[in-house]
Amino acid sequence: MSGHRVSWAIAGLGKIAHRFAEDLTKHVANGYLYAVASRSEKRSQMFAEHHDAEKAYASYQDLANDPNVDAVYIATIHPFHYDMAKLFLSAGKHVLVEKPAFTTVKDWDEMQNLASEKEVLLIEAMKSVAFPAYQSLRQFIRQNHIEITSIEAAFGNWHEFDTKQQIFNPDLCGGATLDVGVYPLWLYVDICHLTGSDVFPPKVNYWQDNPESEVDETIEFSFKQGIKGNIKASITQNLERSAIILGPDIKIIIHEKWWNPIKIDVFYKGEHRVISPAITGGGFEHEATHISELIINNEISSPLITAKTSRKVIDIMEQTLRSQGLGKLLARAD
User: With the CA atoms of 98, 100, 103 and 107 taken in that order, what torsion angle do they form, in degrees rounded to the nearest 10?
Assistant: First the structure.
């Protein structure tokens, strides 16, 4: 670290990496972009120049060997997360890994154990949880001991069928569950954990709009026990962009895009309040600031983006795909 600022590196330099770098460099006071890496020297150099990073590597191993790197944001597609996380955790780096962090509980547990052994952070990059509006909502629910009875949330956008795209490629862990189902499942499980509710196995239905498809294109998770949940995800359909959370005395509307929670309406016991704190960046600054603070304070777990919730969501996705005969989508890339 440089003073009280965490030196960040980014591994994998696609579109989401640019968005993370933009917020990190412009809106995070306790961290800065020090290094970037990809398998292309040209791409790494161009990315570093664009975002003013000091180091540009054409090897992930070289990045792992750099003693000045505190934390690595893994922004590759999820079939490569396991090997990347293992590399950087083994080198003693804190790791923020894009969602889904891994595709199986076995991989999650193995990497969590490695992080614990190295006394570093392993956190799934579920940035929506770190948004100020969502944190205020969680605090309101907790402080008022609010009972939640149902959650309805979806994440879905239409994409033209093309097996060259990762989301339609069965050999690259494609499909709606892993690509976008992780978002609403995280919301559901997080609220269950917040309110002390058990998470029971859901009833699952999936379908395909393209007959030649080998992945789950649209999927619905129906939680019938505990907190009722209607959770949907799709890579071929445009789905509702607001989330609705209900209880005996409360109605909560997280407005679109609910996974970037900026405005939340809360109707509670006849009163209406709006949660809408000002934000300055694109949303990645909240998780980067939070994790940088944890590192500065020598913490090895997050109370916001919890390992317990990540593990449970991975478990639901894994069991769902295996039960639907889609276990091949869980395989890591070679």
Answer: 50
